[in-house]
Amino acid sequence: MIVIITVMYQIHYFNIRLQQEVDAWPEDILASYRAITERMIEFGADLGLPHTRAMGAGLFEIRAHGREGIARALYCTLVQKQIVILHVFIKKTPKTPAADLQLARKRLKEVKNGYCD
To answer: In which domain, by residue range, is 102 found?
Structure first.
């Protein structure tokens, strides 16, 4: 008898404030984000465009959108199928702002060194 065990991915937030920010997003953007994260839990962190995109050096983005705009969640992956959301924001310009990338990269280093709230 062959037993197949499916290990789902887990999503964690760098801190509770990030989860609260996401929960406060407009309903249609939040629905898009939740649909993408549900797929990530089942199929893994790298869904590819249009849902996720690699940003380089271990940083990735979730690309949520709706009638009210566009949102991004920057994340990294860890061993044992862990996904850590590092930074979230509603996008107001075509290019991801440098300050948002800088904060996510700083948090990425902290996560890789074992820190999380």
So the answer is: 10-112
Neighbouring C-alpha atoms within 13 Å toward the C-beta of 69: 10
- Give domain status of residue 4, yes or no: no
Domain of 83, CATH number, reads 3.30.2310.20
Of the candidates 106, 45, 40, the one whose C-alpha atom is nearest the C-alpha of residue 78 is 45
- Model pLDDT for residues 64-80, shown as the tens digit of each residue: 999 999 999 999 988 78
> In which residue are the tokens 């075509």 written?
94
The pLDDT tens digits for 8-61 are 899 999 999 999 999 999 999 999 999 999 999 988 888 989 999 999 989 999
Q: What angle do CA 37, 84, 30 make, to 5 degrees?
A: 35
Classify residue 1: in a domain, yes or no.
no
Helix pair 16-23, 27-43: axis angle to 10 deg? 130
Q: How many domains, in total, are found in the chain? A: 1
- Output the furthest CA–CA distance in the chain (Å, rounded): 55
